[in-house]
Write a structure and sequence with these properties.
The protein is built from 16 helices and no strands. It has 444 residues and is an all-alpha fold. Helix 1 crosses helix 12, helix 3 packs antiparallel against helix 9 and helix 6 packs across helix 7. The longest helix is centred in the C-terminal third of the chain and has 33 residues. The N terminus is likely disordered.
């Protein structure tokens, strides 16, 4: 890796180390903020009809993501290799385990890309007279084409989309605060005793609200998929991971405060898309158009992140010995083209298949399980490779990963109880990954 400045010369494995903290922050923000923040505040308010509890729950979800970022920052700085969770599993448990984790991660990315593209297609179809699946596939093709120009083009597009997304959300927040408060923040701080359940009766709605919040924070680990493409990974990756969560947390708190400022709690709790209701109040007939633009920007940034990240999982698996050898081929711009084409093709087929309910539940299970594999790798490497260079060390170890792991495991158990069939399918998908056998290793 170059330690002296940017270069277009391929790094080990054929990738170019040209990225910096600006891309890392954009990747974290772009990989996290999607349409969920426009919709999920209503789900949370439906469970916790108290402004104080609502804001606290969003803060707790952000702290959980922040602690996860602090844990994974140690692995990212110590093992600055492109590919994400598969890198840590391979280092801690061997190539076979790395391939299983990589397979699950790649499949989860393809499912997520298909779903987000379909959601965007539905938004765009109200503006463009083309059916939603065609638009969804067209978006995948468009962003895949951008990646063919290289990592600089993909990185620049990510930075611009994330900046546009943040600016649009902040504009909506500012507009909300410019009108007199009639929402949840204007209501009495201490509700009547009968308004809220207390004690154990409050536990279930809090847990359900936290589920909606934590899923909205998913994606904070996006920078790790590009680890060896950073100019100074030892410094840039921790800053990107931790800084990205702080940015998202601040935006989420501002957005929820703005919604509570203009929407009464019963309205917020019953709203399908609370941000749209708020926009109509403060912007009138322009409100719907503004929310459409915000949603499109949010989804475009998320799609760009996934289109960039998913092929790098296959690329790393190719280096670990997964056939075909073409998975390791990288063009002059630093893009793993065969892996990109396979990812785009698979996601497009999932879009055209058109059934997402179970796929999304399976993908959600995998997304919860993957960080658990990272935490297990963190503990294993601490025990068996104490001399591994660690430019950044997890704060509060071992208590921080134990706390994050306990919460993640609790969510996994809850999913197994509520959706046992989907969890069994996810387990079967994982077992299918176990059939992947590493061949001769490529360049490391």
């Amino acid at each position: 890796m170059s330690q002296n400045g940017p270069t277009d010369t391929p790094a080990a494995g054929g990738l170019s180390n040209v990225l910096g903290v600006a891309f890392g922050l954009a990747g974290s923000v772009g990989g996290t903020i999607g349409a969920g923040i426009l919709r999920n505040p209503g789900l949370v308010a439906a469970q916790l009809p108290s402004a104080g509890l609502i804001m606290t729950t969003w803060l707790v979800g952000g702290v959980y993501a922040l602690l996860g970022a602090i844990c994974i920052a140690e692995l990212a700085a110590a093992l600055p290799r492109t590919g994400g969770w598969t890198v840590y599993a391979e280092e801690a448990f061997g190539r076979r385990a790395g391939l299983v984790v990589g397979w699950c991660d790649w499949m989860a990315h393809c499912i997520g890309l298909a779903w987000v593209s379909t959601t965007l297609g539905a938004f765009l179809s109200s503006l463009i007279p083309i059916n939603s699946p065609t638009l969804a596939v067209g978006v995948i093709v468009l962003f895949s084409s951008i990646q063919l120009f290289g990592v600089r083009a993909g990185g620049t597009s990510q930075e611009l989309l994330s900046l546009g997304k943040a600016a649009a959300l902040l504009t909506l927040v500012a507009a909300c605060f410019l009108v007199p408060s009639v929402g949840g923040l204007a209501e009495p701080v201490s509700p009547e005793p009968t308004t809220l359940p207390s004690g154990p009766a409050l536990l279930v709605p809090i847990v359900m609200a936290l589920q909606a919040v934590i899923t909205t924070y998913d994606g904070w680990a996006s920078p790790v998929y590009f680890a060896e493409e950073f100019k100074e990974p030892a410094q840039d990756l921790p800053r990107s991971l931790i800084g990205g969560v702080f940015v998202v947390l601040a935006l989420y708190l501002l957005i929820n405060a703005a919604l509570l400022h203009v929407l009464p709690l019963p309205v917020l709790a019953s709203a399908q898309i609370p941000a749209a209701d708020a926009a109509e109040i403060v912007l009138g007939e322009w409100g719907h158009s503004v929310i459409t633009v915000v949603a499109v920007l949010a989804l475009l940034g998320l799609i760009n992140t996934v289109v960039m990240a998913a092929p790098r999982i296959l690329y790393r698996m190719g280096l670990a010995g997964l056939r075909p050898i073409a998975l390791t081929q990288v063009n002059k711009g630093g893009t793993p083209v065969p892996a990109l084409l396979i990812t785009a093709g698979t996601s497009s087929l999932l879009v055209l298949a058109g059934t997402f309910e179970h796929l999304l539940a399976i993908g959600a299970v995998l997304y919860v399980a993957l960080p658990l594999s990272g935490l297990a790798a963190l503990a294993t490497l601490r025990r068996h490779k104490p001399d591994l260079a660690r430019p950044f060390c997890c704060w509060g170890y071992p208590f921080t990963p134990l706390l994050v792991g306990s919460v993640s495991l609790a969510f996994l158990i809850a999913a197994a109880i509520s959706e046992p069939s989907d969890c069994l399918i996810a387990l079967g998908l994982t077992a299918l990954g176990g059939l992947l056998k590493p061949q001769d290793r490529r360049t490391a």
